Amino acid sequence: MKPSMREFLDLEHWPAAMSVEYVSYVLGWSENEVHILIRAGILPYLGSSDGSERKDIHTAELLELIADKKWMTKARNCLIAHWRQKNSSRVLRQNGSAKSHGSASAPKNNHPDYSDTQGKKNSNIPKLN
Which among 15, 71, 90, 105 counts the fewest CB atoms within 10 Å? Predict the structure, then answer.
Protein backbone atom coordinates (compact mmCIF):
# COMPACT_ATOMS: atom_id res chain seq x y z
CA MET A 1 0.00 0.00 0.00
CA LYS A 2 1.35 3.41 -0.98
CA PRO A 3 2.13 5.75 1.94
CA SER A 4 -0.27 8.38 0.56
CA MET A 5 -3.01 5.75 0.42
CA ARG A 6 -2.42 4.67 4.02
CA GLU A 7 -2.37 8.30 5.18
CA PHE A 8 -5.66 9.04 3.44
CA LEU A 9 -7.46 5.91 4.63
CA ASP A 10 -6.29 6.61 8.21
CA LEU A 11 -7.75 10.13 8.29
CA GLU A 12 -10.30 10.60 11.07
CA HIS A 13 -12.53 12.71 8.77
CA TRP A 14 -12.51 12.46 5.00
CA PRO A 15 -13.11 15.55 2.85
CA ALA A 16 -16.65 16.26 1.58
CA ALA A 17 -15.48 15.62 -1.98
CA MET A 18 -12.83 13.17 -3.20
CA SER A 19 -10.61 13.18 -6.25
CA VAL A 20 -10.48 10.12 -8.50
CA GLU A 21 -7.24 9.11 -6.77
CA TYR A 22 -8.89 9.01 -3.34
CA VAL A 23 -11.99 7.27 -4.69
CA SER A 24 -9.72 4.58 -6.11
CA TYR A 25 -8.21 4.10 -2.63
CA VAL A 26 -11.67 3.65 -1.09
CA LEU A 27 -12.92 1.28 -3.80
CA GLY A 28 -9.67 -0.65 -4.05
CA TRP A 29 -9.70 -0.27 -7.83
CA SER A 30 -7.41 1.66 -10.15
CA GLU A 31 -7.91 5.32 -11.05
CA ASN A 32 -8.49 4.20 -14.63
CA GLU A 33 -11.36 1.98 -13.47
CA VAL A 34 -12.89 4.91 -11.55
CA HIS A 35 -12.80 6.95 -14.79
CA ILE A 36 -14.53 4.04 -16.59
CA LEU A 37 -17.34 4.08 -13.99
CA ILE A 38 -17.71 7.86 -14.35
CA ARG A 39 -17.86 7.66 -18.17
CA ALA A 40 -20.47 4.88 -17.93
CA GLY A 41 -22.61 7.06 -15.65
CA ILE A 42 -22.43 4.55 -12.81
CA LEU A 43 -20.40 6.79 -10.51
CA PRO A 44 -21.86 10.31 -10.36
CA TYR A 45 -19.54 13.27 -9.95
CA LEU A 46 -20.07 16.79 -8.66
CA GLY A 47 -20.89 19.62 -11.03
CA SER A 48 -21.10 19.57 -14.78
CA SER A 49 -18.13 18.89 -16.99
CA ASP A 50 -17.11 19.12 -20.61
CA GLY A 51 -14.84 16.15 -19.99
CA SER A 52 -11.52 17.88 -19.42
CA GLU A 53 -11.82 19.04 -15.82
CA ARG A 54 -11.07 17.14 -12.67
CA LYS A 55 -13.93 14.95 -11.47
CA ASP A 56 -14.76 15.08 -7.77
CA ILE A 57 -17.05 12.58 -6.11
CA HIS A 58 -19.31 13.44 -3.17
CA THR A 59 -17.93 11.42 -0.25
CA ALA A 60 -21.28 10.77 1.50
CA GLU A 61 -22.81 9.53 -1.76
CA LEU A 62 -19.79 7.31 -2.46
CA LEU A 63 -20.07 5.73 1.00
CA GLU A 64 -23.78 5.04 0.40
CA LEU A 65 -23.02 3.48 -2.98
CA ILE A 66 -20.26 1.19 -1.74
CA ALA A 67 -22.51 -0.01 1.10
CA ASP A 68 -25.02 -1.17 -1.55
CA LYS A 69 -24.10 -4.66 -2.77
CA LYS A 70 -26.27 -4.26 -5.90
CA TRP A 71 -24.39 -1.10 -6.88
CA MET A 72 -21.01 -2.74 -6.25
CA THR A 73 -22.06 -5.69 -8.43
CA LYS A 74 -23.25 -3.32 -11.17
CA ALA A 75 -19.97 -1.38 -11.01
CA ARG A 76 -17.86 -4.55 -11.10
CA ASN A 77 -19.89 -5.95 -14.01
CA CYS A 78 -19.39 -2.68 -15.88
CA LEU A 79 -15.62 -2.99 -15.44
CA ILE A 80 -15.65 -6.67 -16.46
CA ALA A 81 -17.63 -5.81 -19.61
CA HIS A 82 -15.28 -2.90 -20.39
CA TRP A 83 -12.11 -5.00 -20.11
CA ARG A 84 -13.68 -7.94 -21.95
CA GLN A 85 -14.65 -5.66 -24.85
CA LYS A 86 -11.26 -3.93 -24.87
CA ASN A 87 -9.40 -7.26 -24.83
CA SER A 88 -11.55 -8.75 -27.59
CA SER A 89 -10.93 -5.66 -29.73
CA ARG A 90 -7.20 -6.08 -29.22
CA VAL A 91 -7.37 -9.76 -30.20
CA LEU A 92 -9.37 -8.87 -33.34
CA ARG A 93 -6.82 -6.19 -34.27
CA GLN A 94 -3.94 -8.61 -33.74
CA ASN A 95 -5.63 -11.33 -35.81
CA GLY A 96 -6.45 -8.82 -38.52
CA SER A 97 -2.86 -7.60 -38.71
CA ALA A 98 -1.58 -11.21 -38.84
CA LYS A 99 -3.85 -11.92 -41.82
CA SER A 100 -2.80 -8.74 -43.59
CA HIS A 101 0.86 -9.74 -43.29
CA GLY A 102 0.29 -13.07 -45.01
CA SER A 103 0.37 -15.29 -41.93
CA ALA A 104 -1.15 -18.64 -42.87
CA SER A 105 -2.29 -19.63 -39.39
CA ALA A 106 -2.39 -18.50 -35.81
CA PRO A 107 0.42 -19.60 -33.50
CA LYS A 108 -0.05 -23.02 -31.95
CA ASN A 109 -1.28 -22.98 -28.38
CA ASN A 110 0.20 -25.80 -26.30
CA HIS A 111 -1.86 -25.03 -23.23
CA PRO A 112 -3.36 -28.27 -21.81
CA ASP A 113 -6.85 -26.78 -21.53
CA TYR A 114 -7.04 -26.37 -25.29
CA SER A 115 -6.41 -29.96 -26.35
CA ASP A 116 -7.13 -33.43 -25.04
CA THR A 117 -4.49 -36.10 -24.34
CA GLN A 118 -4.42 -37.26 -28.00
CA GLY A 119 -3.65 -33.73 -29.19
CA LYS A 120 -7.14 -33.17 -30.65
CA LYS A 121 -8.80 -29.83 -30.09
CA ASN A 122 -11.16 -29.84 -27.15
CA SER A 123 -14.66 -28.99 -28.45
CA ASN A 124 -15.68 -27.62 -25.03
CA ILE A 125 -13.38 -24.61 -25.39
CA PRO A 126 -14.98 -21.66 -27.24
CA LYS A 127 -13.30 -20.85 -30.55
CA LEU A 128 -12.09 -17.28 -31.14
CA ASN A 129 -12.37 -16.09 -34.72
Answer: 105
First to last CA, the chain: 40
pTM: 0.66
CATH of range 3-95; options 3.40.1350, 2.60.40, 1.10.1660, 1.10.357: 1.10.1660
All residues at 6 or more sequence positions from 38 whose CB lies less than 8 Å from its CB, including other chains: 20, 45, 55
Task: Compute the residue count for the chain.
Answer: 129
Is the separation of the CB atoms in 17 and 7 below 8 Å? no
Which amino acid makes up residue 52? S
Strand (E) or helix (H) holding 44: none
3-state secondary structure at position 122: coil
The secondary structure element, H or E, covering residue 76 is helix 69-100
